[in-house]
């Protein structure tokens, strides 16, 4: 049962005393891990000193980190996405296509044209290549 008042929200649970104690302990631990500004603005739980965590102050607020992308460029993403599509479908990737991408990445060059006439290209391979190109254009 859930009741909501002006400043109070109450959740009633029908459970055994052991489960009730475990639930309350978990809520207490959750409260202890909240950032200080949130903790001060909230109603204190049953036990504001946690039982399970020995030192809750060791758990600091999350740091703002710079996302380190898996790929350094759109070309790397293009090849990675293509290889993933081929792996999922259990299809051998086109060596010629991969070689051209690798060459551009190694030489830090721009891919200006793509030569696929040497490889045996079927509809599935063409779909994966075009899907990879489309996805890589959206990659930031």
Question: Can you offer a commentary on this structure?
Answer:
- The protein has helices at residues 17-33, 36-41, 74-89, 95-106, 123-138; strands spanning 2-4, 9-11.
- The protein is mainly alpha-helical.
- It folds into two domains: 2-58, no CATH class; 74-138.
- A hairpin with a 4-residue loop joins β1 and β2 (9-11).
- The protein is elongated, with a radius of gyration of 27 Å.
- The mean pLDDT is 76.
Comma- or semicolon-separated keywords:
mainly alpha, 140 residues, 2 domains
Low-confidence stretches: none
- What is the SS-derived class? mainly alpha
The oligomeric state of the chains shown is single chain
| N-to-C series of helices and strands | EEHHHHH
Task: Tell me briefly what this model is.
By secondary structure, this protein is mainly α. The chain is 48% helix and 4% strand. The two termini are 46 Å apart.
Layout: helices, strands, pairs:
Layout: E1 2-4, E2 9-11, H1 17-33, H2 36-41, H3 74-89, H4 95-106, H5 123-138
Antiparallel strand pairs: 1-2
Helix pairs in contact: 3-4, 3-5
């Amino acid at each position: 049962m859930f009741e909501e008042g002006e400043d109070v929200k109450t959740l009633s649970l029908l459970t055994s005393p052991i489960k009730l104690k475990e639930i309350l302990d978990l809520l207490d631990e959750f409260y202890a891990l909240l950032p200080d500004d949130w903790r001060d603005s909230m109603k204190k739980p049953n036990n504001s000193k946690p039982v399970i965590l020995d030192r809750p102050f060791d758990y600091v607020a999350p740091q703002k980190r710079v996302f380190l992308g898996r790929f350094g460029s759109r070309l790397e993403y293009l090849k990675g996405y293509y290889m993933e599509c081929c792996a999922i479908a259990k299809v051998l990737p086109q060596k010629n296509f991969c070689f051209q991408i690798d060459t551009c990445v190694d030489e830090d060059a721009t891919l200006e044209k793509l030569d696929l006439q040497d490889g045996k290209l079927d509809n599935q391979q063409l779909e994966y290549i075009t899907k990879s190109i489309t996805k890589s254009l959206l990659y930031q």
